[in-house]
């Protein structure tokens, strides 16, 4: 059985290393949209890393959300080990899910290799925008949230707090998955 790990990160720049992951939130969902477990970790910034000017301009518009990332911070070594232990403690084969996976997985994978030495996801991440593209039969650039069917969205806030956004996006993914499962050729796959 697969378990879908909707993961959202907040960062102070576009790439890890020169910039830091500030917060990680993850919500583990079963295919039927059962929320099994969550985790949220705020991180100390990396030594020598700085906030990117454009990203810090973004955070200036979301000051409360940024301040939230600075509460109860942990070292990347401790925090990422907690994340791995949490993922590996779940029943089922973990699948990393994000919107967009290209950003969130970049940080998570880099931090996993840098501070834990391995990834419970191997090298794989499921990108929700790509999944939406295939479901909607539209081009990638047209497969944005504003063009997605309304029934895919539950009433979860998008707060720029990592756990809130991971829960929101995990529910979105499960609703997309339900549509995919309704297709006759896919009903037997899960």
From TrEMBL:
Top-rank taxon: Bacteria
Domain Exonuclease residue range list: 7-172
Any one GO BP annotation for this protein: DNA metabolic process
* MF terms (GO), sorted A to Z: exonuclease activity; nucleic acid binding
- Give one Pfam hit by family name: RNase_T
* Protein name as it appears in the record: Exonuclease domain-containing protein
């Amino acid at each position: 059985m697969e378990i879908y790990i909707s993961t959202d990160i907040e960062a102070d720049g576009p790439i890890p290393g020169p910039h830091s992951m500030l917060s990680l939130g993850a919500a583990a969902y079963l295919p039927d949209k059962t929320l099994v477990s969550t985790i949220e970790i705020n991180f100390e910034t990396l030594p020598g890393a700085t906030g990117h000017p454009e990203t810090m301009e973004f955070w200036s518009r979301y000051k409360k959300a940024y301040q939230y990332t600075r509460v109860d911070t942990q070292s990347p070594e401790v925090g990422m080990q907690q994340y791995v232990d949490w993922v590996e403690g779940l029943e089922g084969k973990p699948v990393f899910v994000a919107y967009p996976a290209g950003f969130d997985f970049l940080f998570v994978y880099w931090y996993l290799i840098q501070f834990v030495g391995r990834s419970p996801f191997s090298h794989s991440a499921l990108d929700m925008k790509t999944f939406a593209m295939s479901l909607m039969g539209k081009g990638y650039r047209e497969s944005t949230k504003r063009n997605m069917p309304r029934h895919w969205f539950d009433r979860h806030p998008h707060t720029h707090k990592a756990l809130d956004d991971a829960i929101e996006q995990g529910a979105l993914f499960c609703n997309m998955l339900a549509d995919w499962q309704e297709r006759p050729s896919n009903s037997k796959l899960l």
